[in-house]
Design goal:
The complex is a heterodimer of chains A (180) and B (275). Chain A is an alpha/beta fold. Chain A has one domain: Rossmann fold, CATH 3.40.50.300. Chain A is built from 5 helices and 7 strands. Chain A has a 7-stranded mixed sheet, with helices on both faces. Chain A is globular and about 45 Å long. The N and C termini of chain A lie far apart (31 Å). Chain B is of the alpha+beta class. Chain B has 2 domains: 157 residues, no CATH class; 70 residues, Arc Repressor Mutant, subunit A (Orthogonal Bundle), CATH 1.10.10. The two termini of chain B are 30 Å apart. About 7% of the residues of chain B have low confidence. The chains are: A alpha/beta (180), B alpha+beta (275).
């Protein structure tokens, strides 16, 4: 059986666990713990190691989804999780501009791990304070060739469209490599 | 949808760059340091700006630009009543007191002064109201944002340098006992004279700025010039705060992704579509 994996990364509380939970066929193996740091007490629990979801394609192929821990002190896990990934998704809380700088930092770190395709998911688009995806692109100085996809991590169709955009980006890169 | 946040996370340079690139029309409000600023844009161009301390009164602008005297200012204010800015400008031009280009230049200088001050604001809530235009009757001057951003960024660098040279505005000034400059050859601007008149070991630099309605940037620039000329010296100085260390950047080897066949990706696409 072949297994492939995608990594879902992004700042603390950007919705990574929810994103995987919405699409995974198994209960997400999550290692959430109650938050002890006052500065990060935006939500009650956070991911300290990783989230792990699965989508079975057929008997021979399984896609694993790995969510990275959002808190900075678990940065050391990122590189381990990124090994062998097909591509990655940077999830951003569109309604919290105070996290944009951190999102940019995470994006650059993951780009350094592997030259794999990636997309940016502008999450929480259902909130009134959410920035538009194209405003986020400018704010985060995202390359025009990289897709910035609107997303609501609780909505299955929305999560599907983000995953599909990443897969389309992988195909496009394969096309480009074949032409050169 | 909302475009709002805090300058701590998304600064003035980044905001103006976004508005320019997205060619936005609307009003940007920033609330910071007890002051409010409202800046208007039309299709990505800066067109008007006011602050709570500078409401953009045309006659006051023309006095500051040296086009009207204080006497003329008082007379015009008394007679003009509640006519609009555009009507007032027409009246002044027809009366031969100013030219059209002087009015336009004064408004432009005012708008730029407001916006350049915003570059030094490091903290403050902002929100953008799409399609909101300046009040009717206001004179608007379209200004390309590219040059504003470049000049603003230059001023930020100057501001940072001045902050390093003069980190604490709660210090006081006193005249040096033996000035190194030849005082007869020193030419002071009006603003510098206004500062000079308040120099006293009991007055902090911040208090002098407040008394003269000057921004931190303006007072720092003036005091720095006087310090460099050896005219004044700082008293009761405090040590500058240590700068936070920048964490060293990580260098990771670039790793190639595993070879995956096109058919695998297509199977994944089919599966996710069916979910």
């Amino acid at each position: 059986m072949q297994t492939v994996k995608m990594v879902i990364t992004g700042p603390f509380s950007s919705g990574k666990t929810q994103f995987i939970r919405t699409i995974s066929e198994i209960d997400v193996v999550s290692t959430d713990r109650r938050i002890t740091s006052e500065s990060e007490r935006v939500k009650e629990e956070t991911t300290v190691a990783m989230d792990f979801g699965r989508i079975t394609v057929d008997e021979d192929l399984v896609l694993y989804l790995f969510g990275t821990p959002g808190q900075k002190r678990f940065d050391f896990m990122w590189e381990i999780l990124s090994e062998g990934m097909l591509g990655f998704i940077v999830l951003i809380d569109s309604a919290r501009p105070e996290t944009f700088r951190e999102a940019r930092r995470i994006l650059e770190i993951f780009r350094g791990y592997a030259p794999t395709p990636y997309v940016v998911a502008a999450n929480k688009q259902d909130l009134a304070d959410a920035w538009e995806p194209e405003d986020l692109r400018i704010a985060l100085k995202i390359d025009p060739r990289v897709k910035v996809v609107p997303c609501v991590a609780r909505d299955r169709e929305s999560v599907k469209s983000v995953l599909l955009e990443l897969l389309f980006s992988i195909l496009e890169e394969m096309d480009a490599e074949e032409q050169t | 949808m909302a475009l709002k946040g805090n300058l701590r996370d998304f600064n003035t340079t980044q905001l103006l760059n976004l508005i320019n690139l997205a060619r936005k029309t609307g009003a940007l409000t920033i609330q910071s340091q007890g002051a409010d600023a409202k800046v208007y844009f039309k299709e990505g161009k800066l067109v008007h700006a006011t602050t709570s301390s500078q409401d953009g009164d045309l006659t006051r602008m023309l006095v500051q630009a040296g086009k009207l005297s204080e006497e003329q200012f008082k007379t015009i204010r008394a007679r003009s009543g509640k006519i609009s800015e555009k009507e007032l400008a027409l009246y002044l031009i027809n009366a031969g007191l100013v030219t059209q280009s002087e009015v336009v230049q004064s408004v432009k200088d005012h708008v730029l002064n407001v916006v350049y001050r915003l570059f030094t604001w490091e903290d403050g809530v902002f929100y953008f109201e799409p399609n909101r235009l300046p009040p009717a009757g206001r004179i608007t001057v379209p200004i390309d944002l590219e040059n504003v951003i470049m000049e603003g960024s230059r001023r930020v660098k100057e501001w940072e340098r001045l902050q390093e040279e003069l980190p604490n505005l709660d210090m006081a000034l006193k005249f040096t006992d033996r000035p190194s400059a030849k005082l007869r050859n020193v030419n002071l601007t009006v603003e510098e004279w206004r500062v000079i008149s308040f120099i006293n070991p009991r007055n902090t630099i911040r208090q002098i700025a407040q008394s003269n309605n000057m921004s931190e940037f303006q007072i720092r620039k003036i005091v720095y010039g006087m310090l460099q000329a050896g005219l004044v010296e700082l008293v009761r100085p405090e040590g500058a705060e240590a700068r936070p260390l920048v964490p060293p950047g990580r260098k990771k080897p670039i790793e190639r992704p595993p070879a995956v066949k096109r058919s695998v990706i297509n199977r994944l696409i089919d599966r996710i579509r069916k979910l």
